[in-house]
């Protein structure tokens, strides 16, 4: 067979397979939504769900008008909630910054019909935004994408230089699937990678990382105006959040929504959504980096200029 003819037929079948998968996945999503809308046991069976209150009100049951019936209704709902992890499911769904970021991204994908195009758009937004958070360094593949200033989790015991690891596969798993950055390197080694690092900033950051209990003293959410690089940082359950990451997700989702809302065919809207998401993510990251530099410059100590030193010397 002619190689060009083979490639032509292969590419045609490949595209057909993608379209078939899209149709199947749309029906799967539709079926799932129909099941959930019927109030079946499973995801979202929470006593806090406002739809439950509305539904029982249509049956003449309310806390104000029929308090006893309402008590019985909410007892039943609480039992269903406990048996199906209804309320806890919301906690599991929202207890990580990337889970929240995913919801932000989903808000920008409404006009894109193809599940495949939605996935590509989501990745175009998320990959650079997560990299900007500092949980991994995309320019450091030889050290399993270890971020600057942080040690490998599985460096050999007693190693002088903890930038090397004995378990590269486990490092990659924890970095990309669990979002773990590892512990900070010792000061001397960290300063080799971050020349602006000072003993004071290093000590403050370690105190923030290991001692600060954060909001309400629970250790779930906390923040500092200076991380190892001297930039503002927040952490939710240990995962770092910074301005470039937040900007990447927010502006990326907005860019995808704007791009996919421009009139055109389904394919054209999908392509514009991908381009808008990628461009918006990079714009948001850039804006966050600029804001970081402005804040960091304000945090750095103001040292006298050479001219000011000379004036002081003359007076002496």
Task: Walk me through the structure.
The protein is mainly alpha-helical and 316 residues long. Among the domains are: 55 residues, no CATH class; 53 residues, no CATH class. It has 12 helices and 3 strands. Strands 1-2-3 form a 3-stranded antiparallel sheet. A hairpin with an 8-residue loop joins strand 1 and strand 2. Helix 5 crosses helix 6, helix 5 packs parallel to helix 10 and helix 10 runs antiparallel to helix 11. The longest helix has 35 residues. It is globular, with a radius of gyration of 26 Å. The relative contact order is 0.10. About 2% of the residues have low confidence.
Q: Going across the biggest sheet, name each strand in turn.
A: 1-2-3
Tell me, rounded to a whole number, the average pLDDT: 83
Summarize the helix and strand pattern as letters.
Answer: HHHHHHHHHEEEHHH
Radius of gyration: 26 Å
Main beta sheet, described?
3 strands, antiparallel
What is the tally of beta strands? 3
Give the % helix: 55-70%
Outline:
The protein has 316 residues and is mainly α.
Topology:
Elements: H1 3-37, H2 50-58, H3 67-84, H4 86-94, H5 97-107, H6 115-133, H7 168-176, H8 187-193, H9 199-210, E1 221-224, E2 233-236, E3 239-241, H10 243-261, H11 266-299, H12 306-315
């Amino acid at each position: 067979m002619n190689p060009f003819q083979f490639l032509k037929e292969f590419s045609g079948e490949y595209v057909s397979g993608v379209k078939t998968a899209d149709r199947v996945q749309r029906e799967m999503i539709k079926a799932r939504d129909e099941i959930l809308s019927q109030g079946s046991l499973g995801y979202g069976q929470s006593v806090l769900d406002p739809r439950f209150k509305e539904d029982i009100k249509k049956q003449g049951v309310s806390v104000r008008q029929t308090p006893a019936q309402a008590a019985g209704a909410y007892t039943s709902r609480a039992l269903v909630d406990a048996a199906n992890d209804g309320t806890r499911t919301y906690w599991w769904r929202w207890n990580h910054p990337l889970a929240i970021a995913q919801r932000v991204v989903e808000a920008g994908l409404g006009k894109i019909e193809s599940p495949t195009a939605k996935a590509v758009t989501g990745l175009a937004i998320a990959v650079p935004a997560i990299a900007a958070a500092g949980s991994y360094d995309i320019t450091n593949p030889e050290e399993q994408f270890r971020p600057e200033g942080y040690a490998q989790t599985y460096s050999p015991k007693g190693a002088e230089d903890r930038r090397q690891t004995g378990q590269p596969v486990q490092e990659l798993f924890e970095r990309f699937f669990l979002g773990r950055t590892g512990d900070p390197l010792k000061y001397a080694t960290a300063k080799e990678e971050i020349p602006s690092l000072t003993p004071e900033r290093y000590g403050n950051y370690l105190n923030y990382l290991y001692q600060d209990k954060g909001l309400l003293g629970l250790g779930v959410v906390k923040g500092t105006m200076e991380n190892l690089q001297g930039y503002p940082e927040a952490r939710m359950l240990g995962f770092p959040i910074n301005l470039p990451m937040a900007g990447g997700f927010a502006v990326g989702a907005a860019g995808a929504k704007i791009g996919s809302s421009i009139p055109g065919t389904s394919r054209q809207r999908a392509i514009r959504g991908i381009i808008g998401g990628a461009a918006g993510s990079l714009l948001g990251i850039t804006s966050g980096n600029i804001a970081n530099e402005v804040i960091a410059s304000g945090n750095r100590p103001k040292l006298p200029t050479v001219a000011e030193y000379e004036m002081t010397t003359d007076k002496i």
